[in-house]
Structures are given as C-alpha cells and as structure tokens.
Structure prediction request, 754 residues.
Amino acid sequence: MARKSVPTLPLILASDHRCCNFQRNMITSCRILLAILLLFGSRFTKCLAFAPVSLSRFIIVDSTYSKARFYSDIQNVHIIRGNLRLKMEDEDGSRNKMKGSTTISTSEKPLAGKNNNRNGKVGNKHKIRTMFRQAKDMERSGQWHQACTHLEAILDIDQHDSYSHLALARLRSRRERTISREKRPSIDNEKESVMKKTGDSVLEETRVTITPLAIAQATPFSKARQAFYNGIDKCPKSIHIWQAWALHEESLGNVSFARSLFQWALEIDNTNPYVCHGYGLLEHQCGNFDAAIELWQRPLKSRQKGKTTAALVCSLGKLMVAKGHLQEARDLYVETVLRIDSQREATEVYLAAAWLEEKHFKKFGRAEELLNVALRVSPGNSRAMVALAKLAGRKVDSQRIVIDKNGSKRGKNPSKRDVERRRNDAVKKQLQEACMDLVKSKKQEQIGTSDVKDGRLFNAWQKLEVKNKNFKAAKSILKEGMEIFPNDHSLRQAAGKVEELVGNYTGARDWYSASLLIMPSAPTLVAYSMLEISHPIGNEVNYTRASRLFDEALLIDPRHGPVYNAYGNMQLKMGNIKKARQVYQNGVFANCRDVASVYHGLAMLELSLGNVETARLVLMEGLKEVRINDSGMDSNRRNRAIFLAQSLGMLELNCNRAAEAKTIFEKGIEQHGNSTQLLLGAALSEVKLGNEESARSLFERAINVDRKHAQAWQSWGVMEMRAGNYKVAKTLFECGIKNDPLHGALWQAYGTFC
Prediction:
C-alpha cells in the first residue's frame, strides 16, 4: 500500500559563508518575519522571505501548521520530483538513524506547554515521513538490508506506525522466501481437492481456527512472522498487515495458516476487496472454485464506493470464462467497469472485455470499440494502445482460409509467410503511428493524462524490427523511446538484448547494468545471467555469479516464471538433478504468472530421467492451470500452452496411446486454433490409428499453416511411401526440401527413398 503523499514544503536554503553586510541584514529581517509568522499563525504563511542562512542549517516551514523549525547536521539536500529527500551522514560517514538529529536553533526560543508538545509531534511526523521515503528508495534500489534498518529506526520513534510495520514485514517476507527454499517450514500437505459440497456458504467448510500467536511461534523461527505479529499487535485494525501476512504464509505453502489469517482479516472488514481477492485466489489454487466465486462476489455485491477493483472483476471474469459462462462474464464487465474510479484499473477491465469479445465471441469490431473506449478513459495508456495494435494484426489472421472439421476449404488460402508479413505490417503501422504521436506530443509537452505511461509502445515496435533482423532500426526506435521515457528500465533491457543479438556482448552488459541502476527487475537479471552463461567474460562460465543473479531475480519477483525455467536448466546442465527439480517445484508452488514454462521445464526434467508417468502428471496439471489462468486475458503466455499440449500429446503417442494423444491434440487445436505443431501431432495420431485419409487432411492443414515446417513434409512423405504412393511421396519430399533446404532429416528421408 502506497504511503500518502506529503505536501511540498517551502524550503529556504542559502549560504552566509561569505556574506556581505546586506546579506546579514537580510538574515535579521528573515528571522524577524519568521517570529511574526509563529505568533500570528496561518494568515501570514504565504508571506515568505528567502534569505541566506548558514550552510550547516536550513529552515523548513510547514505551511499546514505554520511552524518553523531548524534542523542541523544536514550535509546533503536533494529535491527530486518535488519531494524533499534528506541524506544525513554522521561524522564517520555512516548513515545516521536520525535519533536525536533534530535540534532547535539556539537563536529561537522554544514554545512552552502544549504548543511545544505539538511541535514535537509535528517534527516526529515529518521525520518519519522523510525516513519512510528514504527506506522505500533504498528498497527500489536493491538495498534491502539498509531499508530494514531504516524502518526499524522509524518504529523506535513510533511503534504504532502501520506503514512501517507493513513495509518491514514485507521486506522480511521477500528475503525469507528466497534465502532458504529447499526446506519450507510447516508446509501443509493437504492441498485440497475440488469440493463436492455446494451449500449457502462453502467457506464454512474450510474454516480453521489458529491464533496469530500460534502462527508466529511456529518452528523454525521466522523474522518475517515476528515482524507481521508485531505489526498486528501494535496496529490490530490494520487490515493490510493481516492480508500481507496471509499472503506470506500462502507463498510458503501453509494453507491453513493463510486461511486463518484471511478469516481474521475479514472480521475487521467483511467486504474488503484486497482480502477477498487474496483469499479467493488461495481457494482457487486449492480447487475450491465455488468458494473463490463467493469471495470475489462479496465486495462487488456490496456496491460500496471503493469496493470494486479490477483484480476482483478480472479474476471472476476469467473463472467464468474457464467454466464456459461467457455471457455471465460479459455482463460482469459491463456492470462493474463504471464503478471503478482508477483509470488504470478501468482500462484493465476494458482489456479483458475486449479479449472476451475477440477470442470467444469473434467480434473484432466490438473488441476494437472497447479498446478505443479504454483510450478515451485513459488517454495515452500504453497497454491499451499496444492491445489495439495487436488486434489490427489479428484481424489479418481472421481473414485467412476457414477450414471446417472435415478439412474442406472455403476461400483463398495464403501462405503463412504472406499472412505473417501482412499481420506484422498492420501491427507495425499502428505502433509507428502511436509512437510518432508520442514524439510529437513530447515536443509540444502535451503527453496524455494516463497513469500508465511507459515505453511499452517503443518496445513492441522494436521487437517487430528485431524479428525482421532490422537491428539498426530497432536501436533507433529504442533511442527515441529513451528520450521520452528516460526512467523506463525495460527500454534499456531491450537495448541490451539487441546488442547481444548482434554480438556486442560488452555493450549488452552495459545496457543491462544501466537498466538495473534505474530499477532492479527480474527480466533484466535473467537476461544478464543468461548472457553470463552463454557468453562468459573468461573462458569458463561463472556459475556462482549466475546463481546469485537468479537468486536476486527471485528476491525481486518470486512469481516470474522464466527465472525458475532458466535457473532449473542451468542446474540441470551442471548435473545438479536434485537442485534443478527443487527449483522447478518452487516455481510451480509460487503460482507464477508464466506457469506454462515452469511446468514444461519440470516435465522435460522428469522425462530426461525416465520418469514418464511423473512427466505425464506434470504436463496434465500444467495444462489444467494454463487453461484456467490464461483464458480470460490477451497475453503472450497463452501461446506457451501449445508446448504443453504438444509435449503431452507426443508423450502419449510415444507410449503407444494414440487415442489419448489424438484427444489431447484435438482439444489443443480447438483452444489455440491451427497450430502447426498440434496439427502435425494430430496427423501422426491418425497414422497410428490407421486413418490415412484423416491424416492426409491434417498434414495438408499443417503445411498450409507453415510451408517451412519440414517435419510435416517428411512425415507426410513417409506415410505415402509406406502406403505405396511413391510418386506422391517423392513430390512431398521435394517440396519440403524446396521450402527448407537445410533440414537434415528431410534430406535423409529423400535419400532413403531414392
């Protein structure tokens, strides 16, 4: 929860190191004026005179309380984005914890009685706000230990400051989740199955009673638990501390602890949207979908101001879509979006509604209309603009040939290369226009009022250029983006990736370092660690350094799926099978946003060890999770489910379970469209089952989707050769070689035939 902003304070800062007589007179006048302000109150607070004072002191005037205080021992003062940040150093150069660092100037007499006490309280509040901003800056820059020390110093001043309790506990939680992941304390082994009972309230079936003290005293000792307990002990009504503690226990697998803490939080506010959303996600992960729906609907039904959030609406909508209740999801988006005040959150709902119209109702016009509404609500919103550009590209895909279940074709069928070129051109045109508008607006200083302003548009545009190997154009695009959004770390990460692709590994390291200096992020750390593995500075890979980078990435974002996938692959490459399995299992347990890549990596590990049945179970569970989580939103992650379906289908096919493989491939095609990998798998299943005509139809669909899919040409040719159709087989081999002349297996099959 963000700290409330503090009004900007007038600052009088000057030097009398080499003052002239006039300057000394101005000092005297300034002090007389400040004395008048103290006596007569807020009516004269706007009448400020700026005068030189000692460099070792400056005066901060709080216009709210009309008081003036002198602070000494300040060596550095920085004004960043209108906020006052104080850097305090003691004589040894170390950071002062600000105990006793505030003193009253001897030239001013302190107010007596209640006014003096009131001044002390005001001074403490200002000091705490300043220290809290410092702690958050340290956290953003990766100085977590210093941030914890700073927050502890705040609690020494005011032990009832809920913001500091929450920030400290979250930092402790983040560190504990990554320092020791191999032995999780008090992990529940009760990962509940889907509940069979349906009553007035399925939540009653999951109610547990565990006191916060019992959770805090659970073994082994946990600093995070102690910090959370101290927070609720001093601030028992702070519902956000209760919720954060519950999320911490959930991340460690302590389902019963998490449930109990969520229920304690609901006793404070039964319809709190953040608690209901977190609690609903827990029940959703446990398979208790009815309980999740009940929790997510509770704040929405209350219709109170501030109770409707995008997280609640989108989570509930995704679950409805996964269960096939499409019209209910559509009605939900329509009814709730107007009750959301935040531009950013309203845009999230419009994006989900647009994806529902496009993906499930096939209404591209309606989807485009919703995205344009989102841009009217939040002008310049980068997420909506990128979604609109991608929609323009998918419109090109929708104009392709329509193939029914029997394989008969209607209309002209362009090649995949032509369709992909036209799709990329459509997306690029939209992105280019949007980026040029941003450049023009920047020159006129009229960038939109959206609260989502970043270089996402430039990043999407440069990716298309990189895909076409136009690296020079990609660099130019990123340079323009950095000029408009100099604090967007993702643009520098993308620049590092471009340099890596062209072989400039030193330049790539420099860009990754620049990105991390702006803001440490998990994607940048993963890219940096992969660079260290693939192109080390010396002749030997520094796996210790790479492991530290991966650990740092998990510390920043424990739900970033590619970290677990890359980390597990590195451990497997090093021969640490046990460690690799543990990394993948941690990723599954962390409920990653990109869960498909984690499940796929774990399944491939088990297959490499010969654990076929375990790999099958992992892939099936992964497909189940992906179909639920990625069905309601437009995301690049949804396409990764294709690899899970393909891997599971091929596993069944290699185990001589052709019927089961056919079912898996057909479900994948139904959900993801004409994927060439899934079509090939379905064709091979038909070949195993002896259905040659159906196999021919599927092979033809596969090569129509991708003319360069050499394996499809090869498999089709082999089938025809075994059927005695040698002339057809020869033609298929030759067509495959023409489209992909570097495919060795295709040449080998052709050579065997000749």
Notes: The CA atoms of residues 40 and 445 lie 42 Å apart. The two ends are 71 Å apart (CA to CA).
